[in-house]
Amino acid sequence: PPGSAAAGTVTRTTCGYCGVGCTLQVRVTGGEVAAVLPARDGPVNSGHACVKGRFAYGFLRAPDRLTRPLLRRGGRLEPVGWDEAIGHVARAMREAVAAAGPDTVAAISSARATNEENYLVQKFMRVVIGTNNVDNCSRLCHSPSAAGLTASFGLAGGTDAFEDVERADCLLVVGANPAEAHPVAGARLLAAALRGARLVVADPRAVGLARYADVHLRPRPGTNVALFHGLAHVILAEGLADEDFLRDRTTGLAELRELLAGYPPRAVQEITGVPAADLVAAARHYGRARRPAIVYGLGVTEHLHGTDGVRALANLAILRGAVGTGRGAGVTALRGQNNVQGASDMGALPDALPGYGKVTDPAARGRAERVWGVPLPDRPGLRIPDMFAAARGGRLRVLWIIGEDVCQTDPETGRVVAALAACPLVVCQELFLSETARRADVVLPAAAWPEKDGTFVNFDRRVQRVRPALPAPGEARADFAIVHALAAALGADLGCRTPAEALAECARLTPLFAGLSHERLDREGAVRWPAPAADRPGTASLYRERFATPDGRAHLAAAPYLPPGEEPDADYPLILITGRRWAHYNSGTMTRRTPNLRLDPRDQLDVHPDDAARLGLRDGDEVAVESRHGRARLRAAVGDQVAPGQVFCAFHFPGSGVNRLTATRGDTATSCPEYKVTPVRVRRAGR
Ligand code: SF4
Question: What's the pTM?
Fold first, then answer.
């Protein structure tokens, strides 16, 4: 029982794996985690947790955990003291700025880190270095959500509370596999379907939820925009749109009507491969529901036209008046990482300050300048892919990477490795000697989420406390302390000495967070942003009175379908889709060092039986996979979760080299990589 002496200490915190944000009780005895249990009163999880949050904690005391700073000398990484390591980085930053200007330094902040750490990193880059070269890995997953939702509705978050989704009478789940990637949310969606909500799943793969779907739409990868326009076409053609809402609260209908005339079900079938009858059935389910909900994942965003996809999906909610009215459950983006929402909210973005004020906007800059006391750079900084290009081109002198294994998880890793090799100083803050850390010049040992103090923001904008259950091992430090040490070595004082002070400063700067503090979150539990004042509740459902766009109206988007960046052809006939599996998490740095490894011991390539027969493959065969960008080796797993002509694999293991195959090209609006469409060829290895 929590709190008893025999149980050791029990600390209530927020899961550091996915963006669902389950509340966990971490029990520590003898200086080690003895158990992690879901909190029965957790606002998102109500006593549930998945195999990651519940069991994947053994990495904390793994024998290869980094416990001392490392500095490269004579080609080898050698242990050094903190002063020497920090002094080395500070010197390199100072010299880079003096020799070639502040834009020769760049930082990749982390969606794994707390809000307070992200706040401090972006403040360091803007205030101490004088550049907007700071980004976070939402660039590679949900940056199209931020861009698309902001353009359609005004704010860069999901529109409603997840509880509303559970009360929906029709769930449209798109480009997501929540049963594996967000298991607690997936279970709640399934429960809603089993209670009677219509379930429409749109995903090329037979993901777990599809088994329970009333309609499963399987579009060809890269054709989402046409699919969503097809659904919208039927909703309008059959008189299912909410005309009063469209008249009173939206803009752009005439342009959209004109565009949608070109997307009748037969035409959409041609583009997407989805039978016209299924499309019509799905549109009727969504269009006739009293409380329809849209829940989507990276299958919508990780495309060449990911932002167009988000906006075309948002169109459906707008057409039905399912957002801002209480008559529907709006649009929910299932965020991948624990704090991908918060890292962007905190301004770890090259074009936006905390709270999303643009760096180019004098008013937004002025607000930050008054709080921070220095003039700020007004030119947008580099996005992550542009940082690598700048490094390869000799324009970057220091690249600081916090908690991201870019050499495993970013696309076209051959080019990422080349970028790191070309950059004079690469600094990596990590738990382990990851694929990225082992190529760095300085490695700084960092604390993990059960060792940290701060807050995360989950996928329905809940700001939740993160509390340290045990100390970091050896000399490892929280990212918060490392950023402060680096600032001090450069003669700067960032203020906000504690995470609580950092959130308080952010609250002064950011209307979205104005009413938030650690003390309030400790007292009340989770609070959703916008939280405009300390004595007012957070906001579960957005836009009840007006949308947060400049004219207060929801904006329908009329962008046409455009094809993906690469189509399969005779040389590369199969389409590779990448994603996650249930036992592991992203680069697998943490989960591979836990018993979860026994549940899922390696990356594999899912191949449809028809393709396997044509290629002469048997289940378990080692296969060579080639794209126009690189090669990888995997084990074939023959099964019909993938459609014919498509293959799927995760990216949890460094050895398989999956991201050597994927392409750097990305969403035209945000540079989010097109992970979901990579033409490849496959053959049995050794032939
Ligand atoms: Fe953690 Fe996500 Fe699993 Fe909840 S569903 S326990 S937040 S990994």
Answer: 0.96
